[in-house]
Write a structure and sequence with these properties.
Distance between the termini: 47 Å
Strand content: 15-25%
Protein name: Glycosyltransferase
Shape: elongated
Organism: Craurococcus roseus
Number of domains: 4
CATH architecture of the largest domain: Alpha-Beta Complex
Strand order of the largest sheet: 14-13-12-15-18-16-19-17-22
Largest sheet: 9 strands, mixed
Domain Glycosyltransferase subfamily 4-like N-terminal: 494-661
CATH superfamily of the largest domain: Spore Coat Polysaccharide Biosynthesis Protein SpsA, Chain A
CATH class of the largest domain: Alpha Beta
Number of strands: 34
InterPro entries: Glyco_trans_2-like (IPR001173), Glyco_trans_4-like_N (IPR028098), Glycosyltransf_2 (IPR050834), Nucleotide-diphossugar_trans (IPR029044)
Helix content: 25-40%
Pfam family, one: Glyco_transf_4
Length: 862
């Protein structure tokens, strides 16, 4: 081809690709603006006539090519659209110009000032290799509008809106990757192209005053695209879904737009933070901090201002981090700042040992709070003298601004150590210093170019919103480690919770990051073991999460009403940083799982038992889970009986993972051996019997009371536990507080000869397994899969569940009295029980499930 042979003879370093279609009168002007570039590297114009129906287009291109051989090249193709025309020009330039270093897509109705190329090419050559393109301000032709795109490049901003025109000088290396323009998004081709470049690791850089002139008419291809914006944006986001993954967006937040600015009395200045449990991403001294804040207030489009300012002492933050709740508290504050201006938090000691609680407080004086969190945008008013009353009102009995107060009760926390009052005093001092700095500072004069972009402080929120997420937990991904979320409706250290704790420990040993999510409760039991196991502890409450949608019940089982609206989006944001989640008996979480699955998160449902209503008919968690089965990629069950039940209900067998229950903690082998040996030498008389567990109706408390009354003359009883779901009245016997530590549980099982579980429904109770490990004789009703843990008459005793109540009490009482009379029987049953548990540990199935997770979640979702 003559065009190509002439091209190979020159040393063109920059190519200007000019697609031409239906604009013949403007084409010559665009070509001439290329030819008139001054002082830059050798350049050429490649005109691609995209099947224009006007013959003037072809005549103009050919005439210019003939007049400027080696500098203007004319190509023609059947009409295939703007993207295809640009790609044709790109392919020609890459093949024809061996010395090519950069390329610019110049639309036929735009033009360049003479000094553009010299300035832009020098800036691109001087930039580091990861800078793939230089983007210009938007100076318009024909309309009195001019826009700046100044400030640091932000991929987050580019995900939210396009501020890089196709008229950007791009490095050849971007094109050498094979990246080209996409025809599926007409009008948004350039936005798609830059997102593609960013996904390959390139970034843009602003070139101020570049000399690029952009023609925009009231009706144009871009105007047509804007009318189709929702559909085109969805197409873009589907194509670039990897960039929108919540964990990837969190990493971008940390790098480009940290969510929090921390101010501490002990550390002058400001720390920029995304994850409050991790080290800050940047620290500024007081002068630099005030300069940064004031610059952001003057131009929120160019300079990022953290959306939340946090005033807290190091001691308060240290307490929250030590208990794993700091991320959750910041997340709760973020959600409340939507309809409030300030969130004030006080830290108090836990009401009970090992209890963590987060509760809302009435509006009142925030002056003694341990943390104060306010909107960053409020600084604009606070730094002016006329608004000082707003700040002072925070410490009045009836504050003027919209204020939300919370209290965090932490196990073993010393309220005095949190530094109450220091946060407010430091807030006042920082605002006063900012006001003084503002008076001394010469304000930035606004330029003649406007800024069309959104403020940077809300960009991450917008980007997360594209994935349907509200407030997102500020959890920064950790290289090489995956996050696993355990979702429960409560955490009171009953059997289900202890199974979850065991699973979490196993995951942590495999290198995972376990996180606890409790939906619908403001108080949980947080033992030292739980604090060491879970990297974060998160509560969601007061958002309608406990509501049931009974009008749409599924075969009589309740379903969640928690499926739409801002509350559900916030809950999705709470879980969105996970790589996998396991929902164990949590009603609202069912409504979230399909959308989490759509984000690429592996979703599992944990089932422990088939429950019954107060009238005895089957219902509850397992039946509810059937309504959401399609939203889960797997279901875990704790017994063969429950596995068969799920298959019978239509759950595919391949989705089921059998993880048999095992003792919830590791016991002291020496103590086990001593307890088993002591029972061999036991003389008849005064059997020691134990009830351990939740004091709820499910556990058969009326039966327990009747058995105790019938046997207390010969049996020494201990009842240990507390109510979780029900509020029982006076049981007629003393109740000891729950045992929560391994040492406390070991002491109880070592003391007991027999353990009674007169439950109305169960799964496979941990108490059975733990008691058997210590050689206790377990007497239990034959409900759920208890029969898989007890062989009647050999290593325990099963009482038929269908016996009338008086007969059942008679049978249980007779069994206990028989054990009291026969130490040999007691010892034999205990020995066989201990041996059974010792042999069963390696076959519980947990290792198989962990192996499955490693296969289906081989790496973090980033």
């Amino acid at each position: 081809m003559p065009n190509e042979s002439r091209a190979r003879e020159n040393d063109t370093a920059t190519a200007f690709v000019i697609p031409a279609h239906r604009q013949p009168g403007l084409l010559a002007e665009a070509i001439l603006s290329v030819l008139r570039q001054e002082g830059g590297p050798p350049c050429a114009a490649v005109v691609v006539d995209d099947g224009c129906p006007f013959p003037e287009t072809s005549r103009t291109a050919l005439a210019m090519a003939a007049a400027h051989p080696g500098r203007v090249f004319a190509l023609r193709q059947p009409n295939r659209g703007l993207a295809a025309a640009r790609n044709t020009g790109i392919e020609f330039a890459l093949a024809a110009f061996p010395a090519l270093r950069a390329l610019f897509c110049l639309d036929a109705d735009n033009r360049l000032r003479p000094g553009f190329l010299a300035r832009a090419f020098a800036a691109l050559e001087a930039a580091p290799p990861e800078v793939g393109w230089l983007y210009s301000d938007i100076d318009e032709i024909g309309r009195p509008q001019n826009f700046t795109t100044g400030g640091d490049f932000s991929l987050l901003m580019l995900l939210a809106e396009n501020f890089c025109d196709a008229g950007s000088l791009m490095r050849r290396e971007v094109l050498d990757t094979g990246l080209r323009f996409e025809a599926r998004v007409p009008g948004f081709e350039d936005w798609d192209f830059w997102l593609g470049a960013a996904s390959l690791g390139f970034k843009g850089r602003h070139l101020p005053g570049s000399g690029f002139l952009y023609r925009r008419r009231p009706e144009s291809m871009l105007s047509a695209a804007e009318r189709r914006r929702p559909a085109l944006v969805r197409e873009l986001h589907d194509k670039h879904a990897r960039l929108l993954r919540p964990q990837r967006v969190l990493e971008l937040e940390a790098a480009e737009a940290p969510r929090y600015a921390l101010f501490s009395p002990e550390r002058p200045g400001m720390r920029l933070v995304l994850d409050p449990a991790r080290e800050p991403v940047a620290s500024l001294d007081p002068a630099a901090a005030r300069e940064r804040l004031l610059a952001a207030l003057e131009s929120m489009e160019r300079v990022h201002l953290p959306p939340a300012l946090v005033f807290a002492g190091d001691a308060a933050l240290g307490l929250l981090r030590a208990h794993g709740v700091v991320r959750n508290l910041f997340w709760l504050a973020e959600a409340r700042l939507r309809d409030a201006e300030v969130v004030a938090v006080e830290i108090a000691p836990g009401g009970e040992r090992d209890e963590l609680a987060i509760e809302s407080l009435p509006v009142g004086d925030a002056g003694a709070s341990d943390l104060i969190i306010l909107r960053g945008r409020n600084l604009g008013g606070l730094s002016r003298a006329k608004d000082i009353a707003w700040l002072e009102s925070l410490a009045s009995p009836k504050p003027e601004p919209k204020l939300r107060r919370m209290r965090v009760s932490l196990p073993g926390a010393d309220a005095a150590a949190a530094g109450g009052g220091a946060a407010f005093r430091h807030l006042v001092a920082e605002v006063e210093a900012l006001r003084r700095a503002r008076r001394r500072r010469t304000a930035l004069k606004p330029g003649w170019r406007a800024d069309f972009r959104n403020w940077r402080d809300n960009v991450p929120e917008r980007v997360h919103g594209f994935s349907g997420l509200g407030a997102v937990l500020p959890l920064l991904p950790e290289e090489g480690r995956r996050s696993f979320g355990f979702v429960l409706p409560l955490f009171a250290l009953g059997g289900v919770e202890r199974v979850v704790l065991r699973q979490a420990n196993a995951l942590r040993r495999r290198g995972w990051r376990p996180h606890l999510f409790v939906m619908g409760e403001q108080r949980i039991a947080l033992t030292e073991e739980a604090r060491e196991t879970f990297e974060s502890v998160n509560l969601l409450f007061g958002m309608g999460e406990t509501d049931s949608d009974w009008p749409n019940a599924h075969f009589g089982a309740e379903v969640a009403a928690f499926g739409a609206g801002a509350a559900a989006e916030d809950a999705l944001g709470l879980l969105a940083g996970m790589d996998a989640v396991l929902n164990t008996h949590c009603l609202p979480a069912h409504a979230l799982m399909a959308r989490l699955k759509g984000l690429g998160i592996r979703t599992f449902c944990g089932l422990h038992l088939v429950e019954r209503t107060r009238w005895g008919n089957p219902n509850g968690t397992a039946h509810t889970a059937l309504a959401y089965e399609h939203a889960y990629q797997g279901l875990t069950v704790i017994s063969e009986k429950l596995r068969r039940w799920c298959v019978a209900q239509g759950v595919p067998a391949d989705k089921l993972h059998l993880i048999r229950n095992a003792p919830g903690y590791d016991a002291d082998p020496a103590r086990i051996a001593a307890a088993v040996a002591a029972r061999r030498d036991r003389a008849p008389g005064k059997l020691r019997a134990l009830f351990l567990g939740r004091l709820d109706a499910q556990k058969g408390l009326d039966r327990l009371a009747a058995v105790i009354a019938r046997t207390r003359h010969r049996v020494e009883w201990r009842v240990v536990g507390r109510a979780v779901l029900d509020r029982p009245g006076d049981l007629g016997f003393p109740v000891e507080p729950p045992a929560t530590t391994p040492a406390q549980l070991d002491a109880l099982y070592a003391w007991a000869d027999a353990v009674l579980l007169p439950s109305r429904f169960e799964g496979v109770p941990l108490i059975v397994l733990e008691a058997q490990r210590f050689g206790c004789a377990v007497v239990a009703t034959d409900v759920g899969a208890t029969g898989e843990a007890i062989e009647h008459g050999a290593d325990g005793f099963l009482v038929p569940a269908d016996l009338p109540e008086p007969a059942m009490v008679d049978v249980v009482a007779a069994l206990l009295l028989r054990l009291d009379e026969s130490p040999e029987l007691l010892a034999d049953v205990g020995l066989r029980a201990a041996d059974r548990i010792a042999r069963a540990g390696a076959r519980d199935g947990l290792r198989d499930f962990l192996d499955h997770l490693d296969r289906v979640v081989p790496e973090a979702l980033r």
